[in-house]
Amino acid sequence: MKIAGVQMNVSLMAKEENLNRIIEKMNEAASNGATLSVFPECALTGYCFASLAEAMPYAETIPGPSTEKLQEVCGELNHSVVVGMLEVAEQSVYNVAVLITPDGVLGCYRKIHLPFLGVDRFVAPGDREFAVYSHPAANIGLNICYDSAFPESSRVMTLQGADLIVLPTNWPSGAECVAEHAINMRAMENGIYYCAINRVGLERGFQFIGKSSICAPSGETLTCASGTEEEILYATIAPAIARNKRVDRVPEKHVIDRLADRRPEMYGKIIEPHGLQPPNRS
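and the corresponding structure tokens:
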């Protein structure tokens, strides 16, 4: 499966313009043999909204006008896409990543871990458990940005059979360590492919740092982007490699299997409430 990660700039509150650029890049990726394109967090809307009221007009139902248009393009190209957008549902707004195929919306993930930044100060936290979606080419899990800082997110989806975790993100200045190190670690510790696609450009004073990457189950970086330029990354993934968690480094002397060697009975503290208060989001 050849995948494409589209590192691009995004225009705030310019949904039609962003959608047209997404479609343009999908066409380019498909012409280069990719069957899945991944775009940044909030690629459809922009991210640095100043209030929920400002963001609300740019949120859509899912399925909705933008996902239906993207499904149409997927059908024309025999292609799939993951794109970041804002969803309105039951009087709440969510920061979501949507996986769309020629047959429609295969998966919609509502961001669970919300930083005190941009539109995440105002949206509702995700209310659905982590899930893995059975795409014809691979089992795909979805996360968004800050989720990558919580290793439990990737581990849960690995235990559900994910071959590939896709992370649309908006890393601003200050997140360089995550971009340069955490993605490789999430891939290595779970034995999965990990595709983290960031944006570039300046939005309301926030400089976004690019550095998108696609990593192999070994933790090796397959391809990575610059910190400033729009570009498309390509990598070929082999789900069978992600499904084989046993690594025989020296036969009968040095074997690594990070799933078989887990000791979940010792991890109870992870799910205990911490008692700390998050920042005031009002």
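(Above: one complete record from the training split.) The helical segments are 15-31, 52-55, 65-77, 151-159, 176-190, 239-243.
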